[in-house]
Amino acid sequence: MAERKLFGTDGVRGPVGELLTPDLAVRLGRAAALQAEAERPQVLIVRDTRESGPMLEEALAAGVAAGGGDAMLGGVLPTPAASVLARRLRFDLAAVVSASHNPFADNGIKFFDSRGIKLDDDTEAAIESRLDDSTGERVGGVRQLEGAFDDYIRELRTAFQLDLSGMRIALDCANGATHRAAPVILSALGAELELTGAEPDGRNINEGCGSTHPEPLIELVRSSGAQIGFAYDGDGDRMLAVDGAGNLHDGDDLIALIAKDLRKRGELEGGVAITVMTNYGFLTEMEEAGIEVEQTQVGDRYVIEALRERDWRLGGEQSGHIVWTDFTPTGDGIAASLLVLRSLQGRRLEDVVPFKRLPQKLVNVRVADRAAIARAEGLWSAVEEENGRLEGRGRVLVRPSGTEPLLRVMVEAPDEEECEAVTGRLVDLAKRELA
């Protein structure tokens, strides 16, 4: 397999004008079209609301055409819409111009295959290896895809036939890709809406709003009397919820709620895939409910891989990526909101306890040399010892950051005092050995 230098865990992402340039977008589009199996690949392109989006969208489309494919521009749509429409409209490839929850100055490009699944490592590496290939013998075209937004809304309405009449729902659309779609579908289902983060100007995406900054939504729920609120990130593939009392609920809470509802309906068909960051209390609750759990490394792509391998239907991350493959095989924040509403069956979220959460503490320790982490024998011995003391009651998870010179120390224990004590011991040791 060729080495990947540009593609990370979620496509190519970085500062516009530095890592991500129009030239690179052209080369990526051309390489993706040349790598596609179809003789004249049909490629859907959607984007979020960043001011750099139209520029990179046009460059990417030009590259697809140069590689012999036809680029169809779907406009501003949530990332999961690319997955949904790739399958529904039988595209050979779909591309998204977005940097998800990053600030507006960043942007990114990621690809989905004809099944609506993010490209695997081997395919991304193959595309990267062809960045300098010459233009194909045949040049394709670039066209607007009329009705893409309506098609996505229609798929949501078909999958979630809910009656939300009489419900007041608050939404924070992060001034991003969900700013039209989320209000349209929830209004169509009868909800009365309170909105924030729904006026994008190209630069305010994710700025003090959305799932990474839920404070405005919490305030809106409390001030408006909304029964529930949902916060999305800039590209709409993750979601957090706020109950009517103003309490924030992360992906762990929501996945537990959905899993138990699907189990009751006879629609779970297997277990649930989550990451190693999921709260220990979630594992205990699923065990008591008789629901099998598989834990993966951090990253929604690994959750999705586990679902495919096990032929399971539900998975996600604490950060709010929730995947329900009955709708689409990637995280969809709007679909997750509708799934939560269906699971509540008229109850208020503050009256539901998805699971008993263990106190959790996460500390990042800056290290001088990431390579030295693996050789820190004293630290790893202490981690094993602390895990032994917490066995059956909690756990310790220590891992290096994938992108920064940091060691992440996470501890979960039955009470705050023990949690703080274990964390303190491990952090102090890590600083002595690695800082």
Question: Care to describe what's here?
Answer:
The protein has four domains: about 140 residues, Alpha-D-Glucose-1,6-Bisphosphate, subunit A, domain 3 (Alpha-D-Glucose-1,6-Bisphosphate, Chain A, domain 3); about 100 residues, 3-Layer(aba) Sandwich (Alpha-D-Glucose-1,6-Bisphosphate, Chain A, domain 3), CATH 3.40.120.10; about 80 residues, Alpha-D-Glucose-1,6-Bisphosphate, Chain A, domain 3; about 80 residues, 2-Layer Sandwich (TATA-Binding Protein), CATH 3.30.310.50. Strand 9 and strand 10 form a beta hairpin. By secondary structure, the chain is α/β, with parallel strands linked by helices. Helix content is about 35%, strand content about 20%. The mean pLDDT is about 95.
Question: Layout of helices and strands, plus pairs?
Answer:
Layout: E1 12-15, H1 22-35, E2 42-47, H2 53-66, E3 70-76, H3 79-88, E4 93-97, E5 106-113, H4 121-129, E6 142-144, H5 148-159, E7 168-172, H6 181-188, E8 192-196, H7 215-224, E9 228-232, E10 239-243, E11 248-249, H8 251-265, E12 272-275, H9 280-289, E13 293-296, H10 300-310, E14 314-316, E15 322-324, H11 333-344, E16 360-366, H12 377-390, E17 395-400, E18 406-412, H13 416-434
Parallel strand pairs: 2-3, 2-4, 3-6, 7-8, 7-9, 12-13, 12-14
Antiparallel strand pairs: 1-5, 4-5, 9-10, 10-11, 14-15, 16-18, 17-18
Helix pairs in contact: 1-2, 1-4, 5-6, 8-9, 8-11, 12-13
